[in-house]
Amino acid sequence: MSGHSHFAESIEEYLEAVYRLEREGPGVTTSGLASSLGVAPASVSGMLKKLAKEGFVEQVARGEVKLTRKGLEVAVRVLRRHRLAERLLTDVLGMPWDEVHSEACMLEHAISERVEARLLRLLDDPQTCPHGQPIPARDLTDPVMRGEPLAQAAEGARTRVESVTEELPEILRYLGEIGLRPGVEVRLVQRAPLGGPLTIDVGGARHAISLELARMVMVSAA
Q: Of 19, 25, 46, 213, which is least packed with CB atoms within 10 Å of its CB?
């Protein structure tokens, strides 16, 4: 994966997406990749054939693929650098957490091994990105995913936000406005019937959030 050609960057983006989808379950499909990357299914099919030929992925079932060891090494490297870049942008440059994902998508391909090592020292070896997602280890072991969706919490439960699973700017911007960030305590005050909104308490202020949004916020017992 030497150089930073557009094709090499595309390969890295595909492998990173496969890595994410593998851990979200239940499997990595052409349609799932197309949706994740925002490209046509036909384009995904063509790229998967190239990735399989190069030994980055292998087919495990009809229409499903998984990373090989070779593919996993690339995916982990790129995702590590993506999340370190997000940390740099928020912790050092002071960018809002809802703006760093797209910037990190560009930086992740340009960070070298030497720069990564210096980032680790500068940032004091962070374990998560600004959104609470774990930074995968270089030894390729799967990171521990903490918490369960806020949507599953019981009424009256006091929890602590671990992470936000979606990095869409509008979602992060709203969560930031109401203070729902990793490390913050949140209490589920009331659950509306029939899949209605949840009333939560964050720092003494109450907010109503949709069940769909509550599924994107991972929490653990406070």
A: 25
Computed over every residue of the chain, the mean pLDDT equals 93
What is the residue-wise DSSP string for 71-95? HHHHHHHHHHHHHHHHHIIIIIT--
Nearest to 54 by CA among 34, 29, 73: 73
Tokens matching residue 92: 């050092």
pLDDT at 99: 97
pLDDT of residue 62: 80
Question: 148-221 adopts what CATH topology?
Answer: SH3 type barrels. (2.30.30)
Q: Which residues is 140 bridged to in the sheet?
A: none
- pLDDT for res 4: 60
In the chain, what are the domain boundaries?
Answer: 1-144, 148-221
Q: Which residue has tokens 């760093």?
A: 100
Compute the C-alpha angle 124/128/133, nearest 5°.
Answer: 170
CATH for the stretch 1-144? 1.10.10.10
Those residues of the chain that have pLDDT short of 50 are 1-2
